[in-house]
């Protein structure tokens, strides 16, 4: 295994019998249509519940193990699982035990953001295929290492940007590519979500049943507070990435996909906390601009947390601007177009089945995205993935660049080829992080 994991095992195995040795790499497998795939869900407080439901709806797929540092959540979810599906499910607090289980074929990662990349890399090293929630990475360097790990260990890795499995959104992208609204020069991403004050709970003893050291994993270990566990870590820099790196990853991904661009060369961002004096560290309101001078294209991205207007009827979605009109994507599964200065309604689509295209709901959404992942796992064919690991790096990377511009407080120049800032050591420090011993994202995966 990798040196950081070897050193972790070597230094801690004697001290604690609870430490799990690094899992062995198993060979790639191709499943037949009738072969059952055993899945483990890592992180079950939020999106993990959707993972369980979607996996259990698929043929010949079984959720065999639930994993979370909070045993209280695990035991409650085990009871719910038994009542709903009539079968038992294994429980683990330590994800390394899951990776050591050769009966597990795939893992789905719905942990806090700071765990995503390392959990995915360890899974690849253990021979597991992976579905990882957005954002794929907590920083830009991690995203690159995720790509390298998926390639090196030949694993199927799907990123949780389920709008890529929507027939309507795919049709919309096709219209952009075909020039339906003319040359597309700008994309705007919108994240207008209702986000209340989280107050300030202060510090407190770690509740019984929570392995807080394991919850912290690669990140800075702060005193325990209910302002982190289990949701509001989103708004603290060591663990989350604000709403541009939360809900916003769907929209950053679509901005880049629709414009057909990678990472930008010039970034500026401005915002702050204007509503509440609470424990959040990330900005409540954030406006970022990403410029692509060579392509003559631009991305605008805006996060708002409270009372607001809509834009073209959308609060969460994307607007694309072309020479002939605009194309509006509302949420995950519908779009409209408006042509010319008089805004004549053009083609539209909706996965609900009643739109002009006649598409049926189901192919998009979380379950459809999981179905695409499981199909790729069975065929061991990453080429059919709708949200391949590269989207985890790029969509997350765009959000990270906006956050870095906000934190440095200036316009940044970025080199997408080297994935470093241009002559800016201060900004470069945000490309990675200091990892706790034993939980390092390795330089050589």
UniProtKB/TrEMBL annotation:
One of its GO terms (molecular function) is nucleotide binding. Residues 340-363 are annotated as: Disordered. Residues 37-160 form the Gfo/Idh/MocA-like oxidoreductase N-terminal domain. Coiled coil: none annotated. Pfam families: GFO_IDH_MocA, GFO_IDH_MocA_C2. Gene3D superfamilies: Dihydrodipicolinate Reductase, domain 2, NAD(P)-binding Rossmann-like Domain. Residues 202-267, 370-439 form the Gfo/Idh/MocA-like oxidoreductase bacterial type C-terminal domain. This is Predicted dehydrogenase. It comes from Pricia antarctica.
């Amino acid at each position: 295994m990798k040196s950081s994991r070897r050193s972790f095992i070597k230094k801690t195995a004697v001290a604690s019998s609870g430490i799990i040795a690094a899992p062995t790499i198993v060979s790639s497998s191709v499943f037949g249509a009738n072969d059952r795939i055993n899945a483990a869900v890592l992180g079950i407080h939020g999106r993990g519940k959707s993972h369980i439901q979607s996996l259990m709806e698929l043929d010949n797929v079984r959720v065999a193990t639930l994993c979370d540092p909070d045993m209280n959540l695990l035991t409650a979810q085990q009871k719910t699982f038994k009542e709903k599906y009539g079968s038992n499910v294994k429980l683990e607090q330590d994800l390394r035990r899951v990776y050591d289980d050769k009966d597990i074929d795939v893992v789905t990662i719905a942990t806090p953001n700071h765990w995503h990349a390392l959990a995915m890399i360890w899974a690849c090293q253990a021979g597991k295929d992976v579905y990882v929630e957005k954002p794929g990475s907590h920083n830009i360097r991690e995203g690159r290492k995720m790509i390298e790990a998926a390639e090196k260990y030949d694993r199927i890795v799907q990123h949780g940007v389920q709008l890529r499995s929507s027939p309507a959104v795919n049709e919309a992208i096709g219209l952009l590519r075909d020039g339906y609204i003319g040359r597309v020069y700008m994309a705007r991403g919108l994240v207008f979500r209702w986000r209340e004050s989280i107050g300030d709970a202060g510090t407190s003893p770690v509740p019984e049943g929570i392995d807080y050291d394991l919850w912290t994993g690669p990140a800075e270990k702060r005193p325990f507070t209910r302002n982190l566990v289990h949701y509001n870590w989103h708004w603290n820099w060591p663990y989350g990435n604000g709403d541009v790196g939360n809900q916003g990853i769907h929209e950053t991904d679509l901005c880049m996909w629709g414009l057909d661009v990678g990472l930008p060369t010039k970034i500026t961002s401005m915002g702050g906390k204007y509503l509440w004096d609470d424990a959040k560290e990330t900005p409540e309101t954030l406006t970022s601009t990403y410029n692509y001078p060579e392509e003559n294209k631009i991305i605008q991205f805006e996060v708002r947390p409270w009372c607001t207007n809509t834009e073209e009827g959308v609060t969460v979605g994307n607007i694309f601007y072309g020479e002939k009109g605009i194309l509006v994507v509302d949420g995950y599964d519908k779009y409209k177009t408006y042509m010319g200065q008089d805004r004549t309604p053009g083609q539209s689509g909706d996965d609900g089945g009643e739109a002009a295209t006649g598409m049926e709901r189901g192919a998009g959404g979380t379950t459809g995205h999981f179905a695409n992942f499981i199909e790729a796992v069975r065929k061991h064919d990453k080429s059919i993935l709708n949200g391949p690991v590269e989207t985890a790096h790029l969509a997350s990377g765009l959000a990270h660049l906006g956050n870095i511009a906000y934190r440095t407080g200036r316009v940044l120049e970025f080199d997408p080829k080297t994935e470093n800032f241009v002559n800016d050591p201060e900004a470069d420090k945000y490309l990675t992080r200091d990892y706790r011993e034993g939980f390092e994202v390795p330089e050589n995966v």
